[in-house]
Design goal:
Number of helices: 10
Structural class: mainly alpha
Strand content: under 5%
Largest sheet: none
Oligomer: single chain
Order of helices and strands: HHHHHHHHHH
Number of strands: 0
Helix content: over 70%
Shape: globular
Distance between the termini: 71 Å
Length: 260
């Protein structure tokens, strides 16, 4: 009897561990959900909204009122969800895409669940990589949604602004900078204006997403390092040259596709 109780306690302890629950939710349930979003489920339907509500309830169970903890997971979940609506799935199989998204979401959630980004630069870089990737996914949606015609340009601009402010404020927060919201709102406004301008360029939505993402994260990193007094004229010049060169390479090598 005591042995059975000990086994039960061990099993319950494993189930209650964040690592185990994150594994089940984001390495198993999340990829399956994304696959059905691509093939069967309409995001704004009852099944789609209930599933998103389920993910929200799970995050609430872990973080409660620690609202900063929600910024990256919620951004990733929504970005991956809407990204599945704009990919064709002809080049890379859908199952491979959702598998990669599930693994990245699991790793990100693990770091955030245990607050490891607060004490380790390596963990911060993992979270930043996830933020960059999920931002690319969401920008791909706001540029590519013109092909599925589900939101007007004004609402897409609002989405672009909200996503940019969200990721910028989180990055500034983890580096403990002052004026988090002022800096984030400035970057969000400029990014939204740039998004409106890029929409008329004759490139595919993935290329446009990369261009906008390069500008946004270049701006965030420059603001971050300026606030941390880690910038010199040489460093500013080298970064500007690198950004211009990267944009030039993207533009020159991109396959043009006129947006109608």
């Amino acid at each position: 009897m005591k042995r059975n109780e000990k086994i039960l306690q061990t099993v319950l302890a494993i189930v209650q561990e964040k690592s185990f629950s994150n594994l089940v939710v984001f390495l198993l349930v999340f990829p399956v959900y994304l696959y059905f979003v691509k093939t069967e489920i309409v995001v704004l339907s009852v099944p789609g909204l209930l599933t998103l509500a389920g993910f929200g309830a799970y995050l609430w169970g872990i973080y409660r009122r620690q609202w900063r903890q929600y910024q990256v997971p919620v951004n990733f979940i929504l970005a991956a969800t809407f990204f599945m609506r704009v990919i064709a799935g002809n080049t890379i199989p859908a199952w491979l895409v959702v598998g990669v998204l599930g693994v990245l979401m699991f790793l990100t959630q693990e770091v955030i669940s245990y607050n490891e980004y607060r004490s380790s630069e390596l963990m911060r870089q993992i979270v930043l990589s996830s933020v960059i990737f999920s931002t690319f996914l969401m920008y791909s949606y706001v540029f590519g949604s013109i092909f599925i015609n589900n939101l007007g340009p004004i609402w897409l601009g609002v989405v672009c602004f909200a996503v940019t402010v969200n990721v910028a404020s989180f990055i500034f927060y983890i580096y403990r900078l002052r004026g988090v919201w002022v800096l984030s709102l400035m970057i969000g406004l400029v990014a939204t204006q740039l998004y409106i301008g890029l929409r008329v360029m004759p490139y595919g939505h993935l290329t446009l997403s990369v261009l906008l993402m390069v500008f946004v994260f270049f701006s965030i990193i420059m603001f971050r390092d300026a606030c941390l007094s880690q910038l010199s004229r040489r460093r500013v010049l080298s970064r500007v040259i690198s950004m211009v060169a990267l944009i030039a390479v993207i533009v020159v090598t991109a396959h043009t596709a006129v947006i109608q």
